[in-house]
Write a structure and sequence with these properties.
Helix content is 61%, strand content 5%. The chain has 43 helices and ten strands. Strands 1, 2, 3, 4 and 5 form a five-stranded mixed beta sheet that branches. Strand 2, helix 13 and strand 3 form a beta-alpha-beta unit. The relative contact order is 0.04.
């Protein structure tokens, strides 16, 4: 006897209906379809309220009963079963409340409700053979393609009912989905074979096996997914290969169409054969030997990674088994192949880079902390360790993760947390796809969709908030663990503390480090052991830090150097209270340090000489370069506290060393562009030379009054405020005797002071030496080191050539007496900015000198295409072009009266002298070449002008210049392209070609 239901919209709201007025109307319509008693009984309404979306479940239920009534099926039998069978009612309503698509299916095939009332459904798991046999019944139907779709949906409905009503583990659901796909492919192939040979009875026969790949091959398929496959074929005995392959290709294509085409009963899913050798450009079907030949000779690492999941699912089982056996031998040796590490890094980047920015935060599959992170980590570990351990070779992610954990390749806790997160994320993905049976990996944004999704996963109290919280928690765990997953077991492998957990063997640890890019894994393990040994607080913090640090080192071209430097710095600072605490508590600080240590030798050398500079990495604001005024004040104060000139300049150089590290750290952290680096390094040199000159003058004077004023004129890149890490300081010295002073005595004093300055700055020390080059002075090395202001005036009036006027374009008096600096600037301005510009004879002379420089100055063996200074479209080409413009036009364009290359170029554009596009071409090339020269110094700790040919140095330079690992070739190609365009622009602007 049906129980009378309580009515009232208020009650329906409390039961979870979103639109109670409409729900009340639908309940009345439902009852009207059965005159012998109500359908909407109290148990039914209760079950509706427990479903993911009560409104949707009720609406779909009404549509289904209307279809039963319309087709004159036995509504009474359905109503009685709905009332009396609690299991059936729960299965049906839970399906209808979670899936709009199955609601539509049951309105078209309403008698499929009998499957949900099957008493054997609860707790039963169909075997692969059972699934295949049921789908194979479609072969003999009148319309086999439609029959296959109907049978597939019927079996899918049975699985969804168990999944939603019984709470199946996602492992089982995914496995049955893969079995369904395999059975459908087998049936589609049989239909294709029947059709083909009916139309072509004389065609050659063949053996054809379908190999599932991806999630189908791993028996971890989604509700809606492309099914990735490969086809392998052989002629049957007595047939020639070519006609047999033609038949196989026809059968393969027909099988794909049968599954993918849309008919009156819809479609199954797309079949994708793009993972085959040569991808879509290759033949659809190959023989086994052809597959093997390709994989042995041409296959990339990602193709072997894809083959981890290969599994024969349809067609000739013997051929499929042989394929798997022979291909497997190649798969498990992939980690030994040259370039394996670079390929793996590139694969990870492709996954990340191909996510649209707008989607990244709602991506279950590809976003940070998503499914692909887990799958990629597991597959990489399988490739590394599966070559020597068959136990970890499963194509199923969760089974493989469990095997890796059992064998000690993944920590027990990490493995369990990762498996839980993966199951939750896959369950979310399944529920999202079930709603409309559409392929998607996006978490919905609509509140109603999120509410239905949350309730379907068991979050009934606060479905939206609790769902989002759980999702974010699991994604965070994945993001936190998937990098450390590779490195944590390495610590256990070298630990001397006994523990119950299975540990990596030394050989397995070396294999893993090699696969992750460490060139000397034995040394790396010794460093790890030294850093983490013992039970002290220091070793505990290091154990917590090392997994992340090892991962950051591995992202660089030279992880071994990064790890060694980290050990050296830690040995120096490990006993200080702030060092490890800073790295532990300041995540950005540890990551900055790791990238800096692995970037090259320059910053590491600076840091090893003054490890306490690590403290500035804790706060990004500490990496802002100091002002020249602040530096001069600090350097001067440091020097005055010393009694001896050597000690005074050593104190100045210590400040300089710290500031060079600050600029290098900011540069490597991406906080400074190349102009800002040049400005900062110039400011450091100004402070160093200004305060060191004070010390030198004081040392020469020995307490007596000084007879002259002195200044240092910055030249070249120093004067242009464009210094690089490896630049010399090009200078000229000028003095001006005080009134009443003897000029010879004043000149002797100034010369001694300049010589003492150069000696003090060249002394061996803990910081890079300050190289002072005074060769640009009048008469070069043959001329006096120091001249008076009047001597400069006399020389320039009598002997100055156009090339010296060009050199003076970069002259900027920056150090020493301010009035003398101003006077010198006033002296040279008429020379470098002549009143009417330069004449054509001078233009010809500049071009003649430039041609000679191009022909003679390039070092022996240097490649003109890759020499950043003297090569085609390099710095010299661009700077000479800008300087010629200045000599011609600066007399009338004030903006051109600057020592800075890019500032002059911008002024030329504003004045209409240079086309904006051409200026942009030159500016990009100048910045790129300058950046490369800085990067070479950062990597090698010695200057260089040519793009490195050593692969590791090239990779490091490219990475500093902003190119991801593995893109050295693109970096080199970009340089050639950019400088080629600059060279063409120089030909137009400088040579008038």
């Amino acid at each position: 006897m049906a129980e009378a239901r309580g009515s009232g919209e208020g009650r329906l709201v409390r039961l979870g209906f979103g639109d109670p007025q409409r729900a009340a109307q639908l309940l009345q319509q439902l009852d009207a379809l059965h005159p012998h008693g109500p359908i909407a009984t109290e148990p039914l309404i209760t079950t509706l309220s427990e479903s993911a979306d009560p409104d949707l479940a009720l609406y779909s239920l009404l549509g289904m009963v209307e279809a039963l009534d319309r087709n004159q099926y036995d509504v009474g039998s359905f109503v009685r079963t709905l009332e009396l069978d609690d299991n059936f009612r729960r299965r049906l309503i839970f399906v209808l409340g979670a899936s709009e698509a199955f609601g539509r299916h049951l309105s078209v095939h309403p008698r499929h409700w009998y499957d949900l009332a099957d008493p054997t459904l609860t707790g039963s798991r169909p075997s692969i053979e059972d699934v295949a046999a049921k789908l194979a019944s479609a072969v003999d139907a009148e319309k086999p393609v439609d029959a296959l779709r109907v049978e597939y949906r019927r079996l899918l409905l049975r699985l969804a009912a168990r999944d939603l009503a019984e709470g199946l583990l996602v492992d089982e659901t995914a496995a049955v989905l893969a079995d369904l796909a395999g059975g459908a492919l087998e049936t589609a192939l049989r239909i294709a074979r029947n059709n083909y040979f009916a139309a072509h009875p004389e065609a050659a026969d063949c053996r054809l096996a379908i190999i599932a790949m991806g999630k189908c091959g791993g028996r971890e398929l989604n509700y809606v997914s492309d099914v990735d496959v490969l086809f392998v074929a052989e002629p049957v005995e007595g047939e020639a290969e070519a006609p047999a392959l033609k038949t196989a290709s026809q059968l393969a294509a027909a099988t794909m169409r049968i599954c993918s085409d849309h008919t009156g009963e819809g479609t199954l899913w797309p079949v994708d054969a793009a993972l085959r050798p040569e991808g879509k450009s290759g033949p659809l079907v190959r023989t086994l030997e052809s597959h093997l030949a390709y994989y042995q000779r041409w296959a990339k690492t990602w193709e072997f990674q894809a083959l981890l999941k290969a599994r024969p699912v349809a067609g000739d089982a013997e051929l499929g088994g042989e394929y798997l056996e022979r291909i497997g031998k190649l798969v498990w040796s992939a980690a030994d192949r040259e370039g394996f590490v670079g390929d793996v890094q590139a694969m990870r980047r492709r996954v990340i880079d191909h996510i649209p920015a707008a989607d990244v935060d709602r991506q279950l599959k590809l976003g940070p902390g998503g499914l692909r992170d887990v799958e990629f980590a597991v597959q990489l570990l399988q490739l590394v360790h599966g070559r020597s351990d068959e136990a970890v070779r499963s194509g199923t992610t969760l089974i493989a993760l469990e095997s890796l954990t059992t064998s000690g390749y993944v920590g027990r806790t990490d493995g369990a947390v990762l498996a839980d997160a993966y199951r939750f994320l896959r369950s979310m993905e399944h529920r999202i796809q079930l709603y409309r049976l559409r392929r998607t990996h996006q978490v919905p944004e609509d509140e109603a969709d999120l509410r239905r999704l949350g309730r379907s996963l068991g979050f009934t109290k606060n479905p939206v908030a609790d769902l989002i919280s759980a999702w974010k928690k699991h994604a965070l765990e994945v993001r936190r663990l998937h990098e450390k997953l590779f490195y944590r077991p390495l610590l256990a492998a070298v630990a001397r503390i006994p523990g119950g957990e299975v540990r990596l063997t030394p050989e397995a640890a070396r294999q893993r480090l090699t696969a992750l890019g460490y060139a000397d894994p034995a040394s790396a393990l010794r460093h790890i052991e030294a850093l983490s040994e013992g039970v002290s607080r220091r070793s505990s913090i290091q154990k917590a830090l090392l997994p992340a640090m090892l991962g950051w080192f591995a992202e660089s071209p030279d992880p071994d150097a990064g790890l060694l430097a980290f050990r050296t710095i830690s040995d120096s600072l490990g006993s200080t209270p702030w060092y490890l605490r800073q790295l532990r508590d300041e995540g950005a600080s540890a990551e900055r340090l790791a990238h800096l240590l692995a970037s090259g030798r320059y910053a590491v050398d600076l840091l090893q000489r003054a490890p306490e500079a690590t403290a500035m990495l804790a706060d990004e604001r500490e990496l802002v370069p100091r002002t020249p005024e602040g530096l001069r004040t600090e350097m001067s104060s440091a020097a005055r506290r010393q009694d001896q000139p050597e000690a005074g300049v050593a104190a100045i150089r210590a400040v300089r060393r710290r500031e060079l590290f600050r600029v290098a750290a900011a540069d490597l952290s991406g906080l400074l562009d190349v102009e800002a680096v040049g400005n900062a390094l110039t400011g450091i040199s100004i402070g160093t030379l200004t305060t060191a000159l004070e010390v030198a003058r004081k040392a020469v004077a020995k307490g007596a009054p000084e007879p002259t004023r002195m200044a240092i004129v910055a030249m070249g890149r120093f004067g242009g405020h464009e210094l690089g890490y490896g630049s010399d300081a090009d200078v000229m010295f000028v003095h001006d005797p005080l009134p009443g002073a003897d000029e010879k005595a004043a000149t002797d004093f100034a010369t001694q002071a300049a010589t003492e300055l150069r000696r003090l700055l060249a002394l061996p020390g803990a910081d890079p030496a300050v190289a002072i080059d005074a060769d640009l002075r009048p008469e070069g090395r043959q001329g006096p080191l120091v001249r008076t202001l009047a001597s400069y005036a006399s020389y320039y009036a009598r002997w100055s050539a156009v090339w010296e006027a060009q050199a003076l374009l970069r002259a900027d008096p920056l150090c020493g007496d301010g009035d003398l600096c101003t006077a010198f600037r006033a002296l040279i301005d008429p020379l470098r900015y002549p009143a009417e510009g330069i004449n054509e004879r001078d233009v010809m002379e500049i071009r003649r000198i430039k041609a000679r420089v191009d022909a003679e100055r390039l070092p022996r063996g240097a490649n003109r295409s890759t020499h950043t200074k003297l090569g085609r479209g390099g710095l010299a080409d661009i700077e000479w072009t800008v300087q010629l413009l200045q000599l011609r036009e600066a007399h009338r364009i004030p903006g051109l009266r600057t020592t800075r290359t890019l500032a002059a170029l911008r002024a030329g554009v504003e004045a209409g002298l240079v086309d904006a596009t051409e200026a942009e071409t030159l500016g990009i090339a100048w910045e790129f070449a300058s950046r490369i020269r800085n990067a070479i110094m950062l990597v090698r700790a010695r200057p260089g002008d040519s793009i490195p040919t050593d692969p590791r140095d090239l990779a490091a330079v490219a990475q500093i210049c902003g190119y991801p690992p593995g893109e050295s070739s693109r970096f080199s190609d970009d340089y050639l392209r950019i400088t080629r365009r600059a060279h063409n622009t120089v030909a137009h602007l400088f040579w008038d070609d």
